[in-house]
Amino acid sequence: MPIRTALVTGANRGLGFETARQLGHLGLRVVVTARDADRAEAAAERLRGQAISVVAHQLDVSSEESCARLAALGPIDVLVNNAAVMAESAENPLAAGLLSRSALDVAPNALLAAFETNTLGAYRVTQALAPGMRSLGYGRIVNVSSGLGQLQDMGGGYPAYRVSKAGLNALTRIFASELRSQGILVNAVCPGWVQTEMGGPQAQLTPEQGAETIVWAATLPDDGPTGGFFRNKQAIPW
Ligand code: NAP
Questions:
Q1: 190 HSE (CA, 13 A, CB side)
Q2: Predicted confidence (pLDDT) per residue in 56-71, tens digit
Q3: Spelled out in words, what is the top-level CATH class assigned to the domain 5-235?
């Protein structure tokens, strides 16, 4: 079996870093990407210390130019679209000053900011890498989504994040349908509530636990599912 190469977006910290670490320990070669080149290199260096085969690559998923440079990497077998922002967060300059997370208060620009990274980011990177997967006749694409994007369970609050993840879920179905016949499996995953900068320290799961279903979807066998939404490796409603 060939050694597979996995590219993870937003892999300098949180679930992205942990996903890269677990994939590396499974024997995949890992391309650790981050929007800041130094942070990408620092994350890669930590993984090299664990005897993982890794390269660092700068990638800002909100930049067309940055995504266009992905072609230089050559074919990639596995893509984990992990990078995301919680645009309602007061730390985000685009949403600065927002104290409430109600849809009655969150500025429309926060929805645009979330869509730019969380939805269009995955769209751009998938467009850049899917042709290489087609040439290989093999591909796994994992869109790291969230229960907050589930229509069945849609509630109030966090409108920017929720809408961006619902959009990502729609993209999952669209790409899965278009790529199914070419050996490329595309799925969305909710990692659960995880202790990261986004999830906060009070979250239920460690990054190790949160990354498990992402890694499972990234390493599915050829007869694995496509076009699904999963948590704890089980299908969940959209
Ligand atoms: P995190 O700790 O906040 O990490 C987010 C990552 O995304 C960081 O590496 C960040 O890079 C990167 N990023 C943001 N904008 C980017 C851009 N334009 N280009 C490239 N990278 C960018 O969050 P996390 O908890 O690990 O979240 C990972 C994924 O899990 C996200 O898709 C999130 O929506 C999803 N998720 C998380 C939870 C949870 O409870 N934690 C629950 C459900 C879903 P910088 O360091 O440069 O900011």
A1: 19
A2: 999 999 999 999 999 9
A3: alpha beta
How much distance in Å is there from the Cα of 16 to the middle of ligand 1? 7
Q: What is the pLDDT of residues 195-227, one digit of tens each?
A: 999 999 999 999 999 999 999 999 999 999 999
Q: Compute the distance between CA of residue 119 and CA of residue 194 in angstroms, rounded to an integer.
A: 20
Task: Report the pocket of ligand 1 as residue ranges, CB < 6 Å.
Answer: 9-10, 12-16, 34-36, 59-62, 82-85, 117, 121, 144, 146, 190-191, 193-194, 196-199, 203
* 161 is known as an active-site residue: yes
* Domain boundaries along the sequence of the chain: 5-235
Q: Is the pTM of this model over 0.85?
A: yes
Residue nearest to atom 33 of ligand 1 (CA): 84
Q: Which of 32, 33, 35 to mutate to test the pocket of ligand 1 (most atoms within 8 A of CB)?
A: 35
3-state secondary structure the chain: CCCCEEEECCCCCHHHHHHHHHHHHCCCEEEEEECCHHHHHHHHHHHHCCCCCEEEEECCCCCHHHHHHHHHHCCCCEEEECCCCCCCCCCCHHHCCCCCCCCCCCCHHHHHHHHHHHHHHHHHHHHHHHHHHHHHCCEEEEEECCHHHCCCCCCCCCHHHHHHHHHHHHHHHHHHHHHHHHCEEEEEECCCCECCCCCCCCCCECHHHHHHHHHHHHCCCCCCCCCCEEECCEECCC
